[in-house]
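Field reference: "sequence" (input) and "structure" (output). Example, Gamma-glutamyl phosphate reductase:
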Amino acid sequence: MNEQTPQQYIARLGEKARHAAKSLPQLGSAQKRHILKTVAEHLVSQTDAILAANRRDLANAQENGISGVMTDRLMLDEKRICSMAQGMVQVADLADPIGQVLHGHTNPDGLEIIQKRVPLGVVAMIFESRPNVSTDAFSLAFKTGNAIILRGGRDALNTNMALVQAIRTVLRQARIDENAVQLVENTGRDIAEALMQAAGLIDVLIPRGGAKLIQTVKEKAKVPIIETGVGNVHIYVDETADLDMAVRIVVNAKTQRPSVCNAAESLVVHDKIASRFLPMLEQAIDKVHTVEFRADERALPLLKNAVPAKPEDYSAEFLDYILSVKTVDGAQEAIDWINAHTSHHSEAVITQDISCARRFQEQVDAAVVYVNASTRFTDGFVFGLGAEIGISTQKMHARGPMGLEALTSTKYFVSGNGQIRE
């Protein structure tokens, strides 16, 4: 940092971002679409360089003893890079929200009052090991005319540097301020805290990662934040459930990619079907990957690979092949239990009872509530947003997967012809 303090370092990035943010709203929708598609093509063309950087990060992760499940979050391959590019193209083709008129009317004084969508300004993100966040965040920010400052985790530093450099190259060639995207290349905690406290430079901060990161940002931030992503995700298997369907869904939600926030962490089972369902589930799940069940007293003897659950297990985001199990006597008990332990991310019920399904969706307090489907679908790409900047678990203007509209504010445009208020 050339002897700069953390505050000076972040201030320099913030000032560059604010300067870039002034010019971005002047770009037309067609120009933004073209730039994003060009960046997507360039990312694919830079696959070898990006993968070389990623291999350095993976080697460092192995040396630091990072688990295989968490390494999966970090790892890129050609398919994942193509998917990142595809997500950017999908964002490019979405309708541009900037300038969208939300409301408009002429009041009794003859004033024309129009409310339009406008950019937030400067968005900052603090996130952990998943390098695809860099490209997703840039595409959404750029499409909405925002400058973005990215602070990824140490584990993915080389990969993020390669990705951001590729983006900045395209911006520079297009004569667009390349500081529309900047990477905090110092991953020290003091730098992160300076970013959290950069009032006047950062318009909104989005933390994306584990519970510890989210809590730290909530405690220390002096800028507005949007809370995202801790996923203590439940699946409730009702007494009327199709058990074969339930097995497929739970196996998918737990094992398809356990290191992500929409993976199932907690299983709630109606006691009437527990003795049939749990052995079925364990047998099926073992064919994919062994899972450690942390079970209550009623579920424990029904499972071979189970240990007694501790109270904290029922609120944990394991991000591993671990699943807590709770038995209940009815749907209302399941709903109350989930609401007591939810992280407000994604919850699901497997049932053939329409009234149970309706009650579950209405009463469970989460951003996304499923009936008879895997929680793994909670994703901006799947929901048609092109990409996501995070999954909001709070109840502000954005909740659930956050796409373009979540990165906008509004402004009132008022026009008159000499009116004064009497």
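The chain has two domains: 6-224+394-414, 234-377.
Residues 6-224+394-414 form a domain with the Aldehyde Dehydrogenase; Chain A, domain 1 fold (CATH 3.40.605.10).
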